[in-house]
């Protein structure tokens, strides 16, 4: 059994990741500043301040009465969006937590690190800085538009160099789309106000599929740094995606046919290299 610590395991995505890993036989430890409201009983909670490198190093090397070694790290803890704290406070919090986790993992000789990067590196919120083509993928340089996404860009650059220093290390940054769960779906679809979701081209990811992507990343036989877009294959809309493109972003190059309500964020790389196969959609929870 592999022991995985999950930072931010009490958040929306974190709770789904903890449940998924636990259900698939992993020895999971939840690290956060607050307890989870619904963690599995056998998953221990450890209160950790990720801004304190000493605490992070201790958490990744062993804690009395909990464990004496860690095999892998899933780092999800962060201020999750811009606007929640002042800009510099946000980037300072998030980047400090990530460098502490990355460096402590290196000291602890942990070779398997997966963390939450973000769709915002693709140029979100969309506006005057549209992506160069559709569907959006990982092939063009990141283009952060906020303090939040700038922090994610810094984290990905750090990961490139950590893996350059250690050829055996795997660091996977998952560029999650807007995370949703079953409590969000009564508000779907968003056809009455499509403008409200133009910021990320009407995309989302079900937290359970996000958790699957985390698990597949932990299990992937890769080394080095990789970034993957993780999105649902459909949009938050009933309106056909091509109609939304022609109405809101008609001048962007289209590299493939856009059918039905397909997402404009491509997760093909994750499908090919990780075996990512999303199973959940808001449409399964549509009110009768």
TrEMBL record:
Record Pfam families: Epimerase (PF01370)
Coiled-coil regions listed in the entry: none
Domain of life: Bacteria
Domain NAD-dependent epimerase/dehydratase, residue spans: 4-180
InterPro entries cross-referenced by the UniProt entry: Epimerase_deHydtase (IPR001509), NAD(P)-bd_dom_sf (IPR036291)
SUPFAM superfamilies from the UniProt entry: NAD(P)-binding Rossmann-fold domains (SSF51735)
UniProt keyword terms in alphabetical order: NAD, Oxidoreductase
Signal peptide as annotated in the record: none
Family from the record: Belongs to the NAD(P)-dependent epimerase/dehydratase family.
Protein name: NAD(P)-dependent oxidoreductase
Organism: Curtobacterium caseinilyticum
């Amino acid at each position: 059994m592999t022991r995985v610590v999950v930072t931010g395991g009490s958040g929306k995505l974190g709770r789904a990741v903890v449940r998924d890993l636990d259900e698939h036989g992993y020895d999971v430890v939840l690290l956060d500043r607050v307890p989870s409201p619904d963690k599995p009983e056998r998953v221990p909670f450890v209160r950790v301040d990720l801004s304190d490198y000493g605490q992070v190093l201790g958490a990744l090397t062993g804690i009395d009465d909990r464990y004496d070694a860690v095999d892998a790290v899933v780092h999800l803890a962060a201020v999750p969006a811009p606007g929640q704290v002042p800009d510099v406070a946000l980037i300072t919090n998030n980047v400090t937590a990530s460098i502490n986790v990355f460096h402590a993992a290196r000291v602890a000789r942990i070779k398997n690190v997966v963390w939450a990067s973000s769709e915002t590196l693709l140029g979100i919120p969309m506006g005057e800085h549209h992506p160069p083509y559709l569907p959006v993928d990982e092939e063009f340089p990141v283009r952060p538009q906020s303090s939040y996404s700038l922090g994610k860009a810094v984290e990905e650059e750090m990961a490139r160099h950590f893996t350059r220093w250690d050829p055996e290390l795997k660091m996977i940054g998952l560029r999650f789309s807007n995370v949703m769960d079953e409590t969000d779906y009564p508000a779907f679809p968003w056809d009455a106000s499509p403008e409200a979701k133009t910021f990320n081209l009407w995309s989302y990811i079900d937290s359970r599929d996000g958790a699957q992507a985390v698990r597949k990343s932990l299990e992937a036989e890769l080394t080095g740094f990789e970034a993957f877009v993780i999105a649902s294959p459909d949009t938050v809309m009933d309106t056909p995606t091509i109609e939304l493109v022609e109405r809101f972003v008609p001048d962007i190059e289209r590299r493939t046919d856009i059918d039905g309500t397909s997402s404009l964020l491509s997760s093909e790389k994750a499908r090919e290299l990780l075996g990512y196969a999303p199973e959940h959609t808001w449409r399964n929870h549509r009110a009768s």
